[in-house]
Amino acid sequence: MIVRFLRRLLLRIGHSLPRKLQKPFYRRLYDGEPPRDSGQIKLSNSNEPESWVRFEFVGGSHDGKVYEGPLANIFYWGSEHGKVGHQFKVASDADVDAMMAGEPSGPILKHAYEIVENRVEDGVRYVQARAI
């Protein structure tokens, strides 16, 4: 009981100390070895597409709609990064509006599309989805 209390106290003290003074407490505060670099967490955008994405819908409720850049990323990710032959479902704008208004609308992901084209041209990834 006392050991547990002392350990918790040490953890609180260690976490509240400035980074330079945390070094003596490191083994108690964290598992593993201390970082060898600056100690900053490195962030990576592994989900970000490698190029600008232009996502086009053909047929169905989204017929003729074209999304580019960040607006296209949600469809790009949902289609397994534009994998040709992959099928996915989307909601129509009317279904989304009804849901936001609080109307009972049932399942809204009911419009199925299939990726039919995925190509890179001049640094832009073109992905086309056709209604099935």
- Tell me the total number of β-strands: 5
Overall, the morphology is: elongated
Biggest β-sheet strands, sense, barrel: 5 strands, mixed
Whole-number count of domains? 2
* Separation of the first and last Cα atoms: 64 Å
Q: Percent range for helical residues?
A: 25-40%
Radius of gyration: 25 Å
Fraction in beta strands: 25-35%
**Total count of helical runs of at least 4 residues:** 4
Indicate the structural class.
alpha+beta
Mean pLDDT: 78
Name the strands of the widest sheet in spatial order: 2-1-5-4-3
Q: What sequence of helices (H) and strands (E) makes up the elements?
A: HHEEHEHEE
Which segments are poorly predicted (pLDDT under 50) over 5 or more consecutive residues?
none
How would you describe the overall organization of this protein?
The structure is a single chain. The protein has helices at residues 2-16, 26-29, 70-78, 93-100, and strands spanning 52-58, 66-68, 87-91, 109-121, 124-131. The chain is an alpha+beta fold and 132 residues long. It folds into two domains: 1-43, no CATH class; 52-131, no CATH class. The longest helix is centred in the first third of the chain and has 15 residues, at 2-16. The protein is elongated. The model has no long low-confidence stretch (mean pLDDT 78).
Offer a concise description of the structure.
With 132 residues, the chain is an alpha+beta fold. 27% of the residues lie in helices and 27% in strands.
Secondary structure topology:
Layout: H1 2-16, H2 26-29, E1 52-58, E2 66-68, H3 70-78, E3 87-91, H4 93-100, E4 109-121, E5 124-131
Parallel strand pairs: 1-5
Antiparallel strand pairs: 1-2, 3-4, 4-5
